[in-house]
Amino acid sequence: MTGADWLASLAAEGVVLGRVSTAERVAEFVRTRVVEGDLLPGTRLSEEALRTALGISRNTLREAFRLLTRERLLVHEHSRGVFVRTPDEADVVDLYAARRVIESGALSAWPQAPEEKRQRVRDAVHFQKESAAARRWSDVATGNMRFHQAITGLVGSARLDEEVRRLLAELRLMFLHMGDPREFHENYVRLNREILELADSGSVTEAGEALRRYFDVAEQHLLTRMRAHG
After folding, report:
1. Of 7-21, 43-57, 68-82, minimum mean pLDDT range
2. pLDDT confidence band for 20 (50 / 70 / 90)
3. How much helix, strand and coil, in percent to the nearest 5, is found in the chain?
4. How many CA atoms lie within 13 A of 55 on its CB side?
5. How many alpha carbons lie under 13 Å from residue 228 in its C-beta half-sphere?
6. Is the pLDDT of residue 175 over 80?
7. What pTM value is reported for the model?
8. Contact present, 132 and 140 (Cβ < 8 Å)
9. At 76, which helix (H) or strand (E)?
């Protein structure tokens, strides 16, 4: 979806949202667009276009921008406007440190988690597999986001779910900064499937170890690509 396409769709989706009226809901709407890969690093967000599309006040939109700036998803550049942020190497290191703590702990909840929550992990892996077979690499990246959200969802904590949505939105910006989505995401389809298979077979400790190895590989992959592009 191009920048123009996602913006053009806002008016229609605003009806579904019941006309967004609070800064928090606007922030969540933009955050979701980042997670789904519709907003690229460096994209300028037009205040006037967003206000018109969502039917919100200037103050509401600016408060949403402030929330997303604190989450490191947006950046305000003096005299130029508000842009989707481009993460750097320090962001990668910090984000993966947080993910190791949150997701590794969440995966240990697999045996006690309700079946519908475990099924969401399976569904994300299946979506990734189907997307890779169809060479829909942007969807493969989206499936990766869903996989990690579903792992956190095993705990059943609204606070953790909210925090990981923010972290994964920032992670998606890092992915988009890496260029060719196939080159970056293809191997993670297999790694996610291996983690799921271990958990599903009852080998939850081994699944946790595989997830930690996954984080090591992914972190170094991102850092290497960033340095190559730097």
Report:
1. 7-21
2. very low
3. 75, 5, 20
4. 12
5. 9
6. no
7. 0.79
8. yes
9. strand 74-77
